Every structure is written in C-alpha cells, then in structure tokens.
Amino acid sequence: MYIDDTIAAIATPPGIGGVGIIRVSGKQAFAIVDSIFESSGSLPLMDRPNKTVQYGHIVDPSTKKTLDEVILLLMQGPHSYTAEDVVEIQCHGGIVSIRSILSLLLAYDVRLAEAGEFTKRAFLNGRIDLTQAEAIIDIIDAKTEDSLTLAVSQLDGTVSNFVKDLREQLIAMIAHLEVTIDYPEEDIEEVTSHEVGEQLKPIAQQMDELLATAQSGRLIRDGILAVIVGRPNAGKSSLMNALLRENRAIVTDIPGTTRDSIEEFMNIEGISLRLVDTAGIRETEDTVEALGVEKARQYLDKADIVLCVIDGSTELSPEEIDILKSTAGRNTIVLLNKSDVNQVITVADIEAHGTFTAVESISAAQGEGTVVLSKWVKELVYGGQVSGNHDTMISNVRHISLMEDARSQIQQALDSIDSGMPVDFVATDLRGAWEALGEITGDSLRESMVDELFSRFCLGK
Ligand code: GDP
Ligand code: ZN
Fold first, then answer.
1. Where does GTP bind (predicted)?
2. CA distances (Å), origin 142, targets 110, 119, 253, 456
3. Residue whose CA lies nearest to ligand 1 atom number 21
4. What is the radius of gyration, based on Cα positions, of the chain?
5. How far is CA 227 from CA 264, 277, 301, 317, 368, in A?
6. Which of 236, 238, 281, 372 has most ligand 1 atoms within 8 Å of its beta carbon, as the pocket-test mutant?
7. What is the largest CA-CA distance in the chain?
8. Residue 279 annotated as binding?
9. Is the pLDDT of residue 319 over 70?
10. Is the pLDDT of residue 258 over 50?
11. Domains and CATH numbers, the chain
C-alpha cells in the first residue's frame, strides 16, 4: 500500500460554523502549508517547535491574495493522529473560506483524502490496530453513553490486548509442537501434546468468557430493534407516544430515519432502541398494500423484541389470534392494553395461543409502557447480569465471528489431542486460530477487507 503522498481534507462537518478545520498529512505537509502561509515568524514551519499553535494568514502565492486569517496546529510524526507530519489549519468556518484553502492546497502536490484515509494511515503506520480504528467509527456513531463507553474502552485496547495475549500464547505452543515434529521419538510427541492440551484449556475458557459478553456487547453497540404489532385500535400509537414522551433520544441524521412516525429512536436503560410500528408501515405505504405487509414481515424477522399490543377490554378477534400465533415462540412481550377499563382477557387466554416471553398489563393511554419495556430490555441485554461493566466486552460482529472461529479451531485442537492425533494436526488447528485472531487486530489481513472497513468512515477522519 502506497502512503508516500500528502493528503488533505476538510475535517469539520459540512455547513457553516465558528471554525473550519482542514487537515493535511504526509511527508510534504509542513513544506506545502509553509508555501501558502504568512506570519510574523521567520522560521520555516518545520523548524518551529512541535505541537505549537502558529498564527498567520493563508495567502495564494500566485495572486498574493489573502484567503483567510488562520491558526495552524503543528504535529510532527510519529506523534500525530496519522503518525505522519500533520498540519491542521483552523480558519473561519465559512464554506467559501474552507473550500478556497482546500483548493489552494490541492494545486500543490496534495491529494484529496478518501473517506477514513487519515485513520487508515494511522493503522498502516502501526499507531493503532484494526479494533482501535473500528472503535473510532463507533465513537463517532455512538448514540448512547453506554455505547460510547464501550467504544472508548475498545480504543484503549481492551480487545487488542486480549487478542494479542492469546496470540502470543498460541505462537509459543505452535513453536513447541513444531520442534517435536522433527523428533522421531513417539513419546516426546505425546508428552508435548499433553502439555499443550493443558495450556489450551484455560485459553478456551478465557475465550468462552469473552464470547459470553457478545450478546450484551452487540446490543449495546448496535442497539435494539423493537417492533410493535397489533390490530387497529389496540393502542399501538398510544404506546409509541407514551414511550417517546419519556425516552426520546436526541438523535439527528440517522440514515433512513423517516419522520412519518412509523419509526422512532429512543434511549432505554442506556441502550439505543429503534421502535417500529408495523401498522404504520401499512398506513404510509399508499402504493401497494402488499408492499407494506412484506416490509412489516422483514421488520418482524429482524426484531430483537416484539411488542404485541392486545386490547384487553374486548374479546380476542380472529385477527389477534393470528398475530399471537405468528409472534409466539420468540422474544415477544404481549401487552394487554387498556388496563384502566374493565378487562375481559386473561393471561391464560393469551397463553392458549402460544409461548411468550411475558404477558403484561398496561394502560398506554395513561402513559404506561416504559417500566415494562425497560425491564425486558435489561433482561435481553444483560440477562440478569449486573449492567454497566464494559471492561472486557466483545461487541463488534466482525470480532465476534472471528473469535468464534478461533474458538472452534481451539476445540478441534483439543479434540485432536484427546484422540491422540499426530502433533502436526494440532499445530495446524492452532495456526488457524492464531490467524483468525490476527484478523481481528489486522495483523493478518486481507487488503480488500481493510479498504472496505475504512470506506465506512466520514471524510476528513
Ligand atoms: P392503534 O390503532 O393500535 O394505533 O391504536 P391507538 O393508539 O390509535 O388507540 C386506539 C383507541 O384506543 C384510541 O381511541 C385510544 O384513545 C384508545 N386507547 C389506547 N390506549 C388506551 C388505554 O390504555 N386505555 C383506554 N381506555 N383507551 C386506550
Ligand atoms: Zn396507530
């Protein structure tokens, strides 16, 4: 991968702001900015003290025109975000000012950075590993304080350190095994096999403990999809409103968010929750009814929690029985609504149609719903464990699947040892586990994967 050139991009969000920041990174960063920067100091930027702020103006050398008054932040590699020489130009936050400085830079030997390219350089230059780069995306995307805490701890290296430690232990065992492959005496192989087996057991256990946090971790990181179903007039909209009044999330700009109130984001127990009213989908899909039904089914398939709203004050209709049957056997909370008026439906009436996670009475009209939902969100995410400890958690789906892969190869190794297979079989399994773990941190990696991963960043990051 070629990273000899100098790149630049606008690092602040599009639009007008108090300051605009342009980030320049690479071997020529100081020299190029120097040629468009004028200040009272006479020293070249390169010779000014590192990590200082320099005041001056950006001047187009060909026209002598001053583009803006700026301050520069000088950061010499390797102690910078990219581990290269970095200059950050802070100008006044107008669109014209930022863009004209950027175009002036691009007239020099500077290339416009791709999305995520600064972070990719930090990775390629060895300042951070892949899990830390991913943590940076997660920090930017975090929608709750809990998901932020999780991402920050990942940036600190909790996942990396765990993985690196495992890999070191594995490589030592592989070496141990490989030495004995060259020894013809059978008994040495056997002794080594036994030793490696004993060392592998605690490793397998550590991996199991980490994988046990995967469900919580994933839900904290990615949030929960809760889908509301129920016949017309059961009280779905009332429930949605009751929940929103207490838990509305401060969320802007989530791609695909529509404001037609079939889908809302909220924050419950520190978890970001996406709530969808499936009837709302049908109501807003004015084209073909079937399209709405199909979409509703897709939401249901993906749901982490199904909220099935039943009007408790009238007999179950055939439609409601159908809904109950189709949502039974999964994580479905049946809400017997309208508890403020006379109830004719009992828990037994509901359970006659299937198995549900819970059947609870609420009055959505009186603003109830949050207590019940909070309880089941907590149950789903933490499963009765104490919440709030994100010290060593695995949360990223990519990490989880590689960790599971590594774990199953360790199991194969253990099984091979048990059944007295030759040591080279065991070594092969361990090498497989070592590789899979290396993909988590990016130590063993495929270039296409790296490109795909960094393309998910925003520009200027
Ligand atoms: P949806 O069609 O399922 O979205 O149902 P709505 O939320 O629009 O409610 C249908 C009707 O039931 C409205 O007249 C609501 O005022 C009423 N309703 C909803 N929840 C309750 C409740 O908890 N108690 C009572 N008494 N009425 C309710
Ligand atoms: Zn409705």
1. 233-238, 252-258, 277-280
2. 32, 18, 12, 14
3. 365
4. 29
5. 11, 6, 10, 21, 17
6. 238
7. 87
8. yes
9. yes
10. no
11. 7-128 (3.30.1360.120), 132-213+394-442 (1.20.120.430), 225-382 (3.40.50.300)
